[in-house]
Every structure is written in C-alpha cells, then in structure tokens.
Design goal:
single chain; about 350 residues; alpha/beta; 7-stranded mixed β-sheet; 6-stranded parallel β-sheet; 10 helices; globular; binds NADP nicotinamide-adenine-dinucleotide phosphate; binds zinc ion
C-alpha cells in the first residue's frame, strides 16, 4: 500500500518506488516534488538506470541511509515545464540528471567544475539534504523530478534514451578517469568486473583506441567482450589465470563492487602504471591492505575517482553523441525492480537494468 511523504514546502504528488528500511524490498510510495522555482526545470522521467550504488544505499552498506529511500541517479527524460528565469531548456527537450542536483556554486571546487567535492556539501540526487526543501532528496525511480537548470544535462540528438540513462552515472564515472589518466591508442587497459561501470569502461576505452583486457569472474560474459570493444578475456577464478598478465597494463580500471585482492591486481601493472578504483565495496577500504612493495617496485600508482562534475558530464554526453556510445541495457517494469536487484547483486545483468518510468504510474 502506498503512503505519502509531504513536507509543507512541497507540492507535486509523484509516484515512486522506495525502500522503507535497510534491505526492505522496494515498493510503491507517493512522494512530493517541489513546485518549480524560477531557475528550475520540471522533468518528466522516461527511464532510470539501476546503479550498484542504489543497492549499496538500500542495504545501508555505507551507513547513514535515510529511509524511506527512492534511489536512482541515472535519469533521462523530457522537459515538462521550466521556471520563468530558466533559459537553457525548452519544453520537450531531451535531458538527463546524474548524481548531482545542487552545490554551493561559488567555492573553489564548484568553480573548478568539481561539484561532487563542494566545500559546503554537494546535494546528491537521492539521500542527500536538499537546501531548498530542507528534506532528503529522492531519486529517479519516479515519474518526475525538479532540478535547478545548472544541474540538468542536455542529451544529444540521436542517442537511444534507454541506453543513455546509464551514461548519467556509469558513463561519467568511467569517462572521467579515462580522460584524467589520458587513455590513448595503443594503451594496454584492464577492466576488472564486467557490470554497468565495467562495460562502459570497455566501450569508452575502445573508442579512445586502447587495447582492452576484461578480467571477470563470469566465464559466460566472454562471448560479449569483442562486441563491447575488448580484445582479451580472462576468467579470474581459474587457477593461474593472471600468470601471463604480470606487468602488462598501463591502466587498470577496477569496478568491482565487493572486497577483493588489490595486491594481486597491482602486480599486473607495468612500471609507472596506474590502477584506479571505482568500485566502492561495503567496508570502506573494502579489500586486502596494500603492501608498500606493490607500489614501490615499479613506481606504480593507486588512485580513486568519484563520478565527475556537471561540465565534464556534458562533455561525456557530447562525446557519446559523436561516437554513438550508449550502454547495453535490459529495460524493466517497476514490478521487476526487486528481481533486478537480486540479479545485479549476483553479477547477472547485461549490462544495466533500466526502469521504464511509465510503469511507475500504476
Ligand atoms: P555492477 O553492475 O553490479 O558490476 C559490478 C561487477 O563487479 C559485477 O558485474 C562483477 O563482474 C564484479 N563483481 C561483483 N562481485 C564480485 C566479487 N565478489 N569478486 C570479484 N568481482 C565481483 O555494479 P556497477 O554499477 O558497475 O558498480 C560497481 C561499483 O562501483 C559499486 O561498488 C558502485 O557503488 C561503485 N560506483 C562507484 C562510483 C564512483 O564514483 N566511483 C560511481 C558509481 C558506482 P564480473 O561478473 O565480470 O566478475
Ligand atoms: Zn551510480
Ligand atoms: Zn561548492
């Protein structure tokens, strides 16, 4: 049965799917969105991807999740209306919303385009304190959202909206480190974990000319790797699988969502190579402690990368528009969300579930 969360400052009733408590199944919940202010865009949501971060939040893996929680930060939709002072979009425009819906706009991080590190505190799309409404934000598993136009992305013409939704998180999270670490033709790149982020890393690194090796626990994903743009596949659970890869890679992109052995992966880097962590397993550091020798012998770097700012997200979308890069998706109805969570948890998704927001109306 659905109930309503209705702080006084809010005004538009919106069907959504929410978890009411940690690890509870998601179920219908009516939320209220704020009435669009002068700089706001009201977006009719068409599709929303299911990121593994949604699962971590619902499971309260990182602690501090506020319930009821409407997850979802891979949003694609159409502009339904805009405030009187919002000039960047018109009704009907194809737009996206990623992980960030507000920040202070004036601190050095915001000015540098790193809104995710806003010194006053970034407002994430869900489970983040909204300075306008003084409530916790609710995400994209819903039929509409209201966002200041500065945080709304323009979707290039010609991109399929279902495959574009995952670009809003998985796309920018993988594009940003590939650019930062200057992925280029001829680079030897390893992608660890072939899920939502992993398959986007393969597609984007391939579009930049790298030679890619996928390291996966799932032998049955091997048949997809050449289509996605990778040249080699290694089934990491098989004995001796990594032996031939020692010292091979310039860049390793680790997207694994569970704790695992980082020293074993560092050994696969060439000297002066970098391993960048994108996966954020439950227990913070997540994995085995790093031996100093894993870094020192070979002048290797271990790095992390957190989503990307608004300007870079637009750059990534425009790049994907030019190259025709979108995610591989399985489009689902609202009633399939809980099953999709189970399948994502066991790595059984090809390669992103995307919710058809029209099915949330019922
Ligand atoms: P996903 O679609 O579930 O993919 C994760 C992949 O990790 C799985 O498909 C699986 O690949 C591999 N994996 C899972 N459990 C494993 C285990 N025990 N040992 C080895 N490999 C395992 O998840 P996602 O949406 O891509 O997200 C991945 C991680 O990135 C999550 O922790 C998420 O929270 C985090 N994330 C971080 C950022 C950021 O800004 N850094 C942004 C978004 C998400 P195989 O089947 O190929 O082995
Ligand atoms: Zn995400
Ligand atoms: Zn700021």
């Amino acid at each position: 049965m659905s109930t309503t969360v209705s702080p006084l400052s809010m005004s538009m009733k919106t069907p959504a799917y929410a978890a009411r408590a940690a690890n509870a199944p998601l179920e219908p919940l009516e939320i209220e969105r704020r009435k669009p202010g002068p700089h706001d865009i009201e977006i009719e949501i068409l599709y929303c991807g299911i990121c593994h971060s949604d699962l971590h939040k619902v499971s309260d893996d990182w602690g501090g999740t506020h319930f009821p929680l409407v997850p979802g930060h891979e949003i694609v939709g159409r502009v339904a209306s805009h405030g009187a002072s919002a000039t960047r979009f018109r009704e009907g425009d194809s737009v996206g919303v990623g992980c960030i819906v507000d920040s202070c706009r004036v601190c050095p991080e915001c000015r540098a385009g790193h809104e995710m590190f806003c010194e006053k505190g970034v407002t994430f799309t869900f489970d983040s304190f909204d300075q306008t409404t003084k409530t916790w934000t609710q995400g994209g598993y819903s039929t509409k959202i209201v966002v200041d136009e500065r945080y709304v992305l323009r979707v290039p013409k010609g991109l399929d909206p279902t495959g574009t939704a995952p670009l809003m998180c998985a796309g920018i999270t993988t594009y940003s480190p590939l650019r930062h670490f200057e992925c280029k033709p001829g680079d030897q790149v390893a992608v660890v974990g072939l899920g939502g982020l992993g398959h986007m890393t393969v597609k984007l690194a391939a579009s930049m000319g790298a030679e890619i090796t996928v390291l996966s626990t799932s032998r049955d994903k091997e048949r997809d790797v050449s289509r996605l743009g990778a040249k080699h596949f290694v089934a990491t659970k098989e004995p001796g699988a990594l032996d031939a890869l020692q010292g091979r890679f310039n860049l390793i992109v680790d997207t694994v969502s569970a704790p695992h052995d980082l020293n074993q992966l560092m050994a696969l880097l060439h000297s002066y190579g970098t391993m960048v962590l994108l996966g954020l397993p439950p227990n913070a550091t997540g994995s085995t402690p790093i031996n100093a020798g894993s870094l020192i012998f070979g002048n290797k770097r271990l790095a992390g990368s957190n989503i990307g700012g608004i300007q870079e997200t637009q750059e990534m979308l425009d790049y994907c528009g030019e190259k025709g890069v979108v995610a591989d998706v399985e489009v689902i109805k609202a009633e399939q969300i809980n099953d999709a969570y189970k399948r994502t948890q066991r790595g059984d998704v090809r390669y992103r579930f995307v919710i058809d927001a029209g099915s949330l109306e019922a």
